[in-house]
Specification:
13 helices; alpha/beta
Length: 394
């Protein structure tokens, strides 16, 4: 079982945590068949939970690999039958991350995905089951991407710098070199999600690829930016992607893209944002962000001029990088005034207000309102900037 799990800041958009329950959850797995059995909300002892999980799996070689009184998760290899990882956690995110880390290690950084995550309470909304790998498959030239499958698109899963990444690809007949692309953040096992399907289908239909890398909860820190650079180099230097992508940050992804863009303004064709966070003080807060920067919250506060992503706005304005942002006026998770509006204000102060478009949705907050993800203006901007980046010289 994984050890030394670290507590992670919880995304405030997620539903409240289910409390620790009186039940014990357990996960059983069959290496020979890939079948997963589980129980939650039924057993009150470890032994009873293990017995029920084994019965649920039903395979002769099934073993119980994980049990606990809160969240438990299982991740499986996309390519290798019998390779799986398991993790417990006080939150769904911690359990998923622990399972993925173990699976990636066993799969030697081959592609993996979370197949099951559940809470010991057994409440329906806390049990998420993905289709497990049921049989060994021939080694593909490129591993299918769970992100692409979720969105109903063609794509590829890869590991870069030890981190899982994805690519959404246009049909082969309309791809080009250099390939226009959009650098997406924040990539997580669950993001990009189905709410973004329309948007991503528009991108690939316009012959624009989309790619992202899961850097964990890095909040724009140097380690996260290094992983971004590793994916950029993989795609540009080895796969013929354009030297200047359009960056697209949703929510906390804004921290990722603006911090990286500030370091590499010569590698950015444009920035798009869907209620993007730019100021660490508003999201996730300095206490939550500080560990990612390997600082205390006090140290981070004293070094905000160096580390806070919003401080990159002046550099981006100086480099004359266009931006399109859409944000709800009633957003109390990532407040409009300190984030998108402040970004636009800094462009105005630099004398290039015309380079940033801020579309404010007066009656919306931080939510799944379709207009955020089906904005024709945002899509047209991102496509145009990605294609401009493909036409530019390195």
């Amino acid at each position: 079982r994984p050890r030394n799990l670290l507590a992670a800041p919880r995304d405030p958009r997620l539903p409240p945590l289910a409390p620790k329950s009186e039940f014990v959850a357990a996960i059983a797995y069959s290496p020979s068949t890939g079948k997963i059995g589980h129980t939650a909300g039924s057993a009150r002892t470890k032994e009873e939970a293990q017995s029920l999980a084994l019965k649920s799996c039903g395979a002769a070689d099934a073993k119980v690999f994980m049990w606990g009184g809160q969240w438990v998760a299982a991740a499986v290899s996309d390519e290798q039958l019998g390779i799986a990882g398991f993790g417990p956690g006080a939150t769904r995110e911690i359990a998923e991350r622990a399972a993925m880390e173990q699976c990636l290690k066993l799969a030697k950084n081959g592609p993996c995905h979370v197949a099951l995550v559940l809470h010991s309470s057994g409440e329906p909304e806390t049990t998420i089951v993905a289709k497990p790998v049921a049989a060994a498959a021939p080694q593909p030239a490129a591993a299918a991407s769970p992100h692409a499958e979720r969105l109903g698109l063609r794509g590829e899963s890869l590991v870069v710098d030890g981190r899982p990444a994805f690519i959404l690809l246009p049909e082969e007949t309309v791809r080009s070199k250099p390939q226009p692309w959009i650098f997406y953040a924040a990539t997580r096992p669950e993001y990009p999600d189905v709410h973004e399907q329309w948007m991503h289908k528009k991108f690939v239909a316009a012959s624009v690829a989309v790619a992202g890398i899961d850097v964990g909860e890095s909040y724009g820190s140097p380690a996260g930016r290094d992983a971004f650079t590793a994916l950029y180099e993989e795609l540009v230097e080895k796969r013929g992607f354009a030297p200047k992508p359009c960056l697209l940050g949703r929510s906390r992804g804004g921290l990722w893209v603006v911090s990286w863009a500030g370091d590499h303004p010569d590698k950015v064709a444009g920035i798009a944002g869907i209620y993007p966070a730019f100021d660490l003080r508003t999201f996730p807060g300095l206490e939550a962000a500080a560990p990612a920067y390997k600082l205390s919250s006090v140290q981070l506060e004293s070094q905000l001029a160096q580390h806070n992503p919003i401080e990159q706005a002046a550099n981006l304005a100086k480099a004359k990088i266009p931006a399109f942002l859409i944000h709800g006026a009633k957003d109390d998770v990532v407040p409009l005034r300190q984030n998108s509006a402040e970004f636009a204000a800094r462009y105005q102060a630099a004398g290039v207000a015309e380079l940033v478009t801020l579309k404010v949705i007066e009656d919306q907050g931080h939510n799944f309102w379709p207009g955020f993800f089906q904005s024709q203006e945002l899509v047209e901007f991102a496509i145009a900037r990605a294609k401009a980046g493909a036409a530019s010289k390195p």
